[in-house]
C-alpha cells in the first residue's frame, strides 16, 4: 500500500475506484482460467462422481 494518506481529487472521480476496478479485472483474468483449468482436470480425473 502507499505510504501517504488517501486524498480525493475534488475536480474529478476518485482514482481509487478506478484502481480497485483494474485490480479486480486483473484478478479475474488470472482466477477464471485457473478455475476453468482446475474444473476440467477434476472432471477428467473423475473427482466429480
Structural features, described:
Helix content is 61%, strand content 0%. With 49 residues, it is mainly α.
Structural class: mainly alpha
How many β strands by DSSP?
A: 0
Shape: rod-shaped
Major sheet characteristics:
none
Beta fraction: under 5%
Chart the SSEs and their pairings:
Elements: H1 15-44
Transmembrane segments: 27-48
Keywords: Membrane, Transmembrane, Transmembrane helix
Keywords:
0% strand
In short:
The protein has 49 residues and is an all-alpha fold. It has one helix at 15-44. The chain contains one helix and no strands.
Amino acid at each position: 500500500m502507499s505510504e501517504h494518506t488517501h486524498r480525493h481529487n475534488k475536480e474529478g472521480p476518485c482514482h481509487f475506484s478506478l484502481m480497485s476496478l483494474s485490480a479486480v479485472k486483473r484478478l479475474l483474468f488470472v482466477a477464471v482460467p485457473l478455475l476453468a483449468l482446475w474444473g476440467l482436470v477434476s472432471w477428467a480425473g473423475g473427482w466429480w462422481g
